[in-house]
Amino acid sequence: MPCLNPAEDPVDARRHRAIAAAIRHLVDHWQDQPGLDELAAVAGMSPFHFQRLFTQWAGISPKRFLQFLTLDNAKRLLAANQSVLDVALDVGLSGPSRLHDLFVACEAMTPGEYKALGGGLTIRWGLHPTPSARRWSPPPSAASAG
User: Fold this and answer.
1) pTM over 0.85
2) Sign of the four-CA dihedral 49, 52, 57, 60
3) How far apart are the first and last CA of the chain?
4) Bigger pLDDT: 2 vs 132
């Protein structure tokens, strides 16, 4: 676990600066969809070590971080009424199928459904008992809605 105060540990401070540089690189170059090798080089470490350290410090993998940056920009472009094809290409993806996969993986809806503001979507939900949680029953009115 990283030190909460990088100034207290010079090794953690160096790691913190390396991960911060990689995050800055991702934010500045998300449209180029930089890979793990490129990000590791920016951080000055091996891809294996970078992957582990980035995930430890950021809480998500570099790939997932890049997906969220890409998704955020795609949402902005869709809200500006651009076509799904134009948005896919503008955010650095190879085509609309990659944008579709990204939306389904992160938002559980297609880019077209997002662009339509969820119009026509049916949302289903359910409650399931887990080994570590008490079972919860919804009120009768909510039970019939799901």
Assistant:
1) no
2) positive
3) 40
4) 132
